[in-house]
Design brief:
Elements lengths: L4 H11 L6 H16 L17 H20 L4 H10 L4 H24 L6 E14 L5 E15 L2 E9 L1 H23 L1
Antiparallel strand pairs: 1-2, 2-3
Helix pairs in contact: 1-3, 2-5, 3-5, 4-5
Family: Belongs to the COMM domain-containing protein 3 family.
InterPro entries: COMM, COMMD3
Protein name: COMM domain-containing protein 3
């Protein structure tokens, strides 16, 4: 697996028995997996068994461990790949086995988590607009300004939704200009 230098440094710190003894490593590993699969779990920062570890170190190790775990699940890495990568970070065999066992136990939930992440923004399928002219505001002051009520119908993964907003003439012209620029950029990118 290809991991960044920061992730490798975090894993090396996690592997260091002077920073994480076996008991704190076990607790830390359980908390990392819990933080990935359940949204309301206890934080590694608040756990009493990990209070003696520097908070910055805990955050760095947590980030490195979650990155490693998610990357392993994403690539469907086998035990030899995971072991090799962790041994490169100076993990002891018992720590590798502990992490791998937890990974196998939570693999289905982690795969579901990764499959639920959607990187595609919603697609606009239809647009409607209406001109509204405001004569007075709620304070009975004269306003005399037009505004546009825009309704965009969007679709993502088969589910439809509607986005509604109001804008002035200048804001609408700016939006249209930006949309034209985006369309030109897409056209240029597709021709390259």
């Amino acid at each position: 697996m290809e991991l960044s230098e920061s992730v490798m440094k975090g894993l090396q710190t996690l592997a260091d028995p002077n920073v994480f003894d076996l008991k704190s490593y076990t607790i830390f590993t359980e908390l990392v997996f819990d933080s990935l699969v359940s949204p309301r779990c206890e934080s590694v920062l608040g756990h009493p068994e990990l209070k003696y570890i520097d908070q910055t170190t805990l955050k760095h190790c947590h980030t490195a461990a979650t990155t490693f775990i998610l990357e392993g699940v994403k690539q469907n890495a086998d035990k030899s790949t995971i072991s090799s990568c962790l041994e490169d970070a100076r993990f002891q065999i018992e720590r590798v086995d502990l992490l791998y066992t937890s990974l196998q136990k939570n693999k289905t939930n982690l795969e579901y988590l990764l499959s639920s992440i959607d990187t595609c923004p919603p697609h606009i399928t239809d647009a409607a607009w209406r001109l509204e002219y405001c004569i007075k505001n709620s304070h009975l002051h004269k306003v005399n300004q037009p505004s546009y009520l825009i309704s965009l119908n969007t679709e993502r993964g088969g589910a439809s939704s509607e986005i509604n907003f109001s804008c002035t003439m200048e804001q609408l012209q700016d939006l249209v200009g930006k949309m034209k620029d985006a369309a030109k950029s897409l056209e240029r990118a597709s021709q390259s």
